Amino acid sequence: MSHAGDSRIQEFIGDPVSDNPILGRAKLEEIFQDIQADIRFDHELHGCLNCGICTATCPAAHYYDFSPREIVQLLWTENLEGIHDAMQEKIWACAQCYTCAARCPFGNSPGGLIMLMRETAIKHGMQSAKDVLRPFSRVMLKLISTGNQLAPDMINPDHFADWGPNLTKVKAPLKILRKAIPVPTLHTTETAWQVNLKTSIELYTIWEMTGVLDQLETIDQNLFDVIVDIMDEKRDDWQDWVDEQEDADED
Predict the structure, then answer these.
(1) How far apart are CA 145 and CA 236, in angstroms?
(2) Of 38, 144, 155, 178, whose CB count within 10 A is highest?
């Protein structure tokens, strides 16, 4: 019997044990098309032998209900319901170590494909993306508004309780110690280092023009509003400084 005309695409096969409601067909197709349209998609997915090497070498697969092979199979067969279901939880188990990509005999990169799925989950404002990113809101606020991911005053028991009881023993006079550092830009505990105002605005403009802020607005409206207010003030301060310099040059 010939199978030459058969398609690998599975039309309506989702996760039979999932409690997550399935979206309408049009929305499922839109989500998959956003993943597939990324220029990286064809570089990360070439086919699948279903050999399981990626899952056998995956650290996350040993501890979570997660399988890189399953992700590749879902995308390769265009299993829209299964793809959507995986985006609700499973894709967030990946540690992005790319061991799968190094071992795949077909040259696939399950980790790269998962990155595309994560970005698409953020774009569509999926609850899974909001839940995963919520704990990082303070870090994101620091990064976008100051150019630093962390700051010395963030390292305390209230914000890093999972670091264990030894953290409570750290009671160093940080403000005094930071002022003793020869580099003036490090004389702060509110940021890792002080970023030049112009540089901060330039970084913010990059995030603004590349769509990062649009994604942030989809995921966390309150955080987006706070960051916009902070950066509007910085832009006003920068413009005031530029105006002062121009007035000084005229005088």
Answers:
(1) 14
(2) 144
Q: What is the CA radius of gyration of the chain?
A: 24
Here the tokens at position 196 are: 């030049």
On whether both 139 and 243 belong to a single domain, the answer is yes
**3-state DSSP assignment of residue 57:** coil
Nearest to 94 by CA among 124, 126, 57: 57
Among candidate residues 97, 124, 151, the one where a domain is terminated = 124
Total Cβ atoms within 10 A of residue 92: 20
- In this model, does residue 59 exceed pLDDT 70? yes
Q: What is the pLDDT of residue 14?
A: 52
User: Cβ distance 250 to 210 under 8 Å?
Assistant: no
Same domain, 31 and 117: yes
